From TrEMBL:
Superkingdom of source: Eukaryota
Protein name, UniProt field: TATA-box-binding protein
Species for this entry: Fraxinus pennsylvanica
Protein family membership: Belongs to the TBP family.
Record bears the keyword Transcription: yes
Residues spanning the signal sequence: none
One term under GO cellular component: nucleus
Molecular functions (GO terms): DNA binding
Ranges annotated as spanning the membrane: none
SUPFAM superfamilies linked: TATA-box binding protein-like
Source lineage: Eukaryota, Viridiplantae, Streptophyta, Embryophyta, Tracheophyta
Length: 207
């Protein structure tokens, strides 16, 4: 069954939802949760499976589970960051599994203030994206420096960030829900087709 949110992550693609053949794909979900207790990171690293702790390099335990395939950063304050999930539901499930592991190690871990912090998605639009044209059309809130990186960055008033990768792919990050991600992906698809052509005509290009 396809993802009910309309975005494809680890789920099979429902082609009927994407008659254009353009399928937005969730790549990574970052979430945070408060375990609401102090943690002995050394004890956790020694007792838990698939956990590592090197305080000289990073002040958190790095723990991994296979299902959902994710990585957690667990801090002594009780704060935890979960990355690698392909959907919001997977991210919450993974965070709960990490919290349960901490509980089984003897800590009074709770599950408070779970929040999706960032969603990254990508899309193959099936046509070349003219980054110069988009930068020209949206110069007030976009930047494009091909000498440094072959991508374009756009920032909206809500601080959502769009990275346009050259040729036919782009990714969207710093959104808070998959519905919002889908809406913005499709909005930028329209910009790629419409405003880029207008911009290149304005710049003197013969399209």
């Amino acid at each position: 069954m396809a993802d009910p949110q309309g975005l494809e992550g680890s789920q099979p693609v429902d082609i009927s939802k994407h008659p254009s053949g353009i399928v937005p794909t969730l790549q990574n979900i970052v979430s945070t949760v408060n375990l609401d207790c102090k943690l002995d990171l050394k004890a956790i690293a020694l007792q838990a499976r698939n956990a590592e702790y090197n305080p000289k390099r990073f002040a958190a335990v790095i723990m991994r589970i296979r299902e959902p395939k994710t990585t957690a950063l667990i801090f002594a304050s009780g704060k935890m960051v979960c990355t690698g999930a392909k959907s919001e539901q997977q991210s919450k499930l993974a965070a709960r599994k990490y919290a349960r592991i901490i509980q089984k190690l003897g800590f009074a871990a709770k599950f408070k203030d779970f929040k999706i912090q960032n969603i990254v998605g990508s899309c193959d639009v099936k046509f070349p994206i003219r980054l110069e044209g988009l930068a020209y059309a949206h110069g007030a809130f976009s930047s494009y420096e091909p000498e440094l990186l072959f991508s374009q960055e756009q920032r909206s008033e809500t601080r959502h960030i769009l990275h346009l990768r050259i040729y036919t792919r782009f990714s969207l990050s710093s959104v808070k829900s998959s519905n919002d991600l889908l809406r913005r992906l499709m909005s930028y698809l329209n910009d790629c087709v419409e405003s880029t052509c207008v911009a290149f005509v304005g710049m003197g290009y013969n399209l």
